[in-house]
Amino acid sequence: MIEIQNESRRLLDTEDEDTGVRSEQDAYLDKVKNGKLFLASLAAVLGPLSFGFVLGYSSPAIPELSTIADPRLRLDDDEASWFGSIVTIGAAIGGLLGGWMVDKIGRKLSLMFCSLPYIFGFTIVIAAQNVWMLYLGRVLTGLASGVTSLVVPLYISEIAHERVRGTMGSCVQLMVVTGIMGAYIAGMFLDWRWLAICCSIPPTMMMVFMCFMPETPRFLLSQGKRREAEEAVRFLRGPDAPAEWECARIEDASDDQGGSLGMADLKNPGVYKPLGVGIMLMLFQQLTGINAIMFYAETIFEEAHFKDSHDTIEDVHLPSEVGNDAELQSAQDADDPADEMAGSGGPVLAWLHMVCGFENSNVATVVVAAIQVVFTAVAALVMDRAGRKLLLILSGVSMCLSTAAFGVYFKLSSETHGNSSGLCLVESPLAEDPAAGLSWLALASMGFFITGFSLGWGPIPWLVMSEIFPSRVKGFASSVCVLTNWGSAFIITKTFQDLMDLLTSAGTFWLFSGCCALNIVFTILFVPETKGKTLEQIQTQFKGTPE
Q: Which pLDDT score is estimated for 177?
């Protein structure tokens, strides 16, 4: 046993200390077979795929439920808003529940159990006889989504080795946007009940497939189950990789991490430093302005004067009255939770109509979702090569510049229209000739922003959250991060209109640009590079002790 522990210490050494030791660790990883690791990751990411279907479901379902013949199920504007936004409430609760579950019953069982509220929730939606049953179904699916957003990144980070952990972890966000796109595509052909049946398939598959997948070795070792942990490692790494080495390495690094979380731990730099980084990453993700741009993109493109080109855009109309109707439309857009995680496809329809000539808004929505999937996939492919920190910085720069450009657009637009209140929806001479106006600036800013967010600040905060916490605090710390994300998203969304009234549209987007500049500085100063490092090396780095 002592020899194995000594060997594991050598495996934990870094390249800078001894290149020979590093090559030995590389030799160990060269023996690894990734086939079953990919299989286990695929089973796990069916959870984020289910999450994406939950988020995307409201977009095709709400229009049908708003015009359904049955008065018991027909949604008015306020009910439709709650139908979309109530998912976030369930997700916030699910984040707290998930933090407790992963520590008490483990990562694998948490994933299996969270399949149940997905299935029960969609079943209630399918059998709904009134609006309250619809609400209940959405809350249950939101609850499962909150658990999923916490558990899946942890599960993947603990089963993946350092060579592929970035790519595997980025697949979480990739599957979320894929699920959203899947809901949009299915919604083109299915009514709302059959769409709910379709959405219940991924969580059912996850529950079945996870029965055959192992628990994470780190959780098993934390429970004193050494033999089961070695079996899990052999399953994940293949028969040629020495499972004893990896288990001993984890145990050796975890010797000072035993016990349960106490108040004294909050004074430990190995706890409070990663907790602070995780919370700020989630907060800065929302302060980028992603929800503001996505939620109000339809109004932004109305401002870009595409709405009046009826030959090109048939489904975008100017509200008959500018005050309350415009605010109500913005509120409805803001409550679509699909926008909250990845950005809605619907708001960018005007751009696709103008550039691509799409006349079917559903097709345009799917194309926008597909673009987001492509850029998130690119991020996953380069994550373990470029590194987390570099992509966060590049993403922050992209969003900082694009939100600043949005502010310039609104400033110039309001001066042109003689209206300083921001999002004005009045007729303008520029509407007669969009090419002579400022529409190109809005379009370029939108594309630049979505690309930047998808490459960095979309997937990476969730990935880093799963990498930086010591085992004994992962449940608590991850639940705090998830709650921060959902809570700040809800607050920023609900106060966005007030910010525009107070600061004007230009001022609000310049505020977001300033927040993006701050997240660049924060990334440079405080976010560690986790590429190519074991979880134990990352945690040692936070403690400030030699690796």
A: 87
